[in-house]
Amino acid sequence: MATLMLHRDVLKDFGRLPAKVQKKVSELIRKFQEDSTQASIHLEKLEQTVDEKVRSVRVGDDWRAIVIAPQKGDTFLLMHVDHHDEAYRWCRNKRFEAHGTLGVLQVFDLQMAEEAAERSRLPEPAPEETLQYPLDRLSDDELFQAGVPRALIPAVRAIRNDAAFEEMIGYLPPEAGQVLFWVVAGRSLEEALEETLGAFDAGAARPEGPGDFSKLAQVASADLVLVEGEEELRRILAEDIEAWRVFLHPYQRKLKEWDIKGPVKISGSAGTGKTVVLMHRAVHLAERLTDDKDKVLVTTFSANLSVTIEDLIRKLNPVAAKRIEVTNLHQLARTICLRAGWQGRVADEQDLSTLWDAVFTEHDPATDGEAAFDRDFIRQEYDEVIDAMGIDSEEEYLTAARTGRSRLSRQQRRRLWIWFQAFNRLLQKRGLLTFEGTVHQARLIVERGGFPRYRHVLVDELQDFGLEGLRLIAALSWIEEDASNPLCVFGDGHQRINRQAKIPLSRAGINVVGRSRRLKINYRTSEQIRRWAHSLLSGMEIDDLDGGHADTTGDRSVFRASEPVAVKVASREEAGAAIADWVKGLCDTHQLGTHEICVAPVFGEVRSALNSLGISSLELQANKADPGQVEPGVRLGAMRRIKGLEFKAVAMVVEDKPDDRNRLERYVAATRARQWLLVVECG
Ligand SMILES: Nc1ncnc2c1ncn2[C@@H]1O[C@H](COP(=O)(O)OP(=O)(O)OP(=O)(O)O)[C@@H](O)[C@H]1O
Fold this sequence. Notes:
The chain is α/β, with parallel strands linked by helices.
C-alpha cells in the first residue's frame, strides 16, 4: 500500500487555503491511504522541472498540489499546495532527494546554489596560500557524509572565505549547513556530526537511492510527517497545530529519546528549544511507565512557565499528561511541606521586614562594638548564605563556603549568628517560612522519606535554582540507584536573572559529567536578533550550570530577519512616542496583531502614547498565562516578567548604564522577539 508523507509547510499553510481546496487536499491524502494507483488521483508528470520525480495534482480550478513520486518503494511526498502558476514555479528548479547516509529528505535548488557560488567568487585569484579554506580538508565523500547532496559539492568546493560560506549556507539543506558550520569553526567531521546531529546514524533506515523515500518515516525529520489514519489527519489539520509538536530536529529527537542511566543536563541559549525537548521527553517517558504508581515530575522556577508547560503537555498527549505532574519549585516545596503537616505560611516581604525590625530593635548592630555590621549586610548575608544554603546551625555556618561573598573571620560569623538565630526563632514562632526555607524544609522531608520520589524528574530554568532547590530535585529523583533517566535538567546561564550565585550541579550531588548536551539551533529568534542579544553579554562570564563556561560555538538561528533598530531619545515621553509609532507601523505594514507585540519594561508614558494612537495595551500579570489572541492589546511587562514568553516584535526601553544583572535581563527581553526588535535608549 502506498503512503503519503506531508511536508511541514503543507500543514502550516493548510488553514490559509480556501475551504474547497482544503477538502480536496484531505481527499487526496485519504485516497493515497487507500491506494495510490487509483485512477482518480491523476498524478500528472510535469515536463519542465529539473527533477523528474515531480508530479502535480489538481485540487481546485486554479490550485495544484505538488507531489514527489518515488523511484523506488511506494512512499510519496506531498510538498506544496498553491495556485497553479506559483506551484509550478515553486518546484521547477528544485531537487528532492533522500540523503544516502543521513537518511533525511533534502530539497535544494542547484541553479540558485551555483549562482550564489558565482556571486561570491573572488574577482581575482588570491595567492596560493590564501586559497585554503577549512572545508578543503574534507574530501568529496566527506562533504557528502556531512550532508551535502552530491550535486552541490562543486558549489561548496567553490567557497573560499567566510562571506562566501554565509552566502552559500542559505542554499544548502539545513543539516549540511549546520555540520559545515562546525567544520569551518575548526572541528573534525566526526565532532561536527556529533555536535549537530548527535552522531546521527540512519542505520537500517538508509535509502537505496535518492529516489527511495520508503525509509524517511524511520528517521528523525524536522520537515516530514507520516500521518497514520484519517482521524490523526483530521486532528492535525483541524487545529492550528504548532510545528514543534510534530516536527523535531534530529538532535532534539535524539535528546527526547536519550535513554541513559544517571542524571543528564541539557543546556542551550534562549530559543533553542529546551522547553520543547523537555515536554517531548516528559511525554516519551510517561508513555513508557510500567508501574501504575509511578509518575513523572516536571518543575520550573517561574510559575508562569509551569502553567504554560502543563497546558502544552496536555495538548501534546492528553493521556500521558495524566501521569505528569507539572509545578514550579515554590509550589512543589509548599505542597511537600503541607502534606507533611506544616500549617504555616510563606512570609512575604512585609513579614520579613517586620521581623528584621524586631530583631534589630532587640539587638542593634550599630551598638555592637567597633566593627559594627550594617543592617543591609546582615539581611543580605542571611538571604544569600543562611537561607540560600539551608544552614541550620552555627557549626554549619562556621564552615560554609560563602561563594561570591566578602571574607568573614570565624569571630565575625559567630557574632552574626546571633542575629540569624534570633530571626529564625521569630519566623518559627509566627509559623512562617521564607521561600528558600520552604524548599529547605521540603528537601529534609523528602530525604527523611516523608514524600515519595518520582520515577523521572525533569527541570526547566535550572539556572534559577539555588543550592537547596537543586538538593530538593536530587532528593526527589532516583539518581543514586543507577536508575534509567532519573533526572534531566534544562537551563541557560545567559538567563540567570533570579539569583546571582552560580551553583554547580555537582555541589548538590548531581553528577552530569559525560552526560551533558547543548542545543544550538535557535528556532525563536532571527539570526540578527540572536547575535545582537549575545553582544549584550560580551565580556561576561557565562557558566554552563556545572562550574564550566557556556560555549556558544555553532549557535545559529533557523531564519533571518531585519537588523534590530536602535534609537536615542531624551525622555520617557519621547520613548513612548517612538514606540507607539513603531507599533503602528508594524500593525499597518505587517498586519501584526497588537497581542504579538511586547514592550518592556512598563511605563505609563508608553501606555499613554499607545492610547493616543488608539492602540490598546495589556499589562502581563504574574502567575497568569498570556491570554493570547483573545485579548488584544500590546503586552507590557517587566523585562524579567516576559521570560519564557515570545512575541513577533519586542520594544525595550533602556535607561541607565547596566550592571551585570541588567545585562542578563536585557538579553532575556531581547530574545523574546522573533522578528522585530526596537531598542530605545532613553536619557
Ligand atoms: N523543532 C521545532 N520546530 C519548530 N519550532 C520549534 C522547534 N523547536 C522549538 N521550536 C520553537 O522555538 C521556540 C523556542 O522554543 P523553546 O521555548 O523550547 O526554547 P527554550 O530554549 O526553552 O527558550 P528560552 O530558554 O528562551 O525560554 C518556540 O516557539 C518553539 O515552538
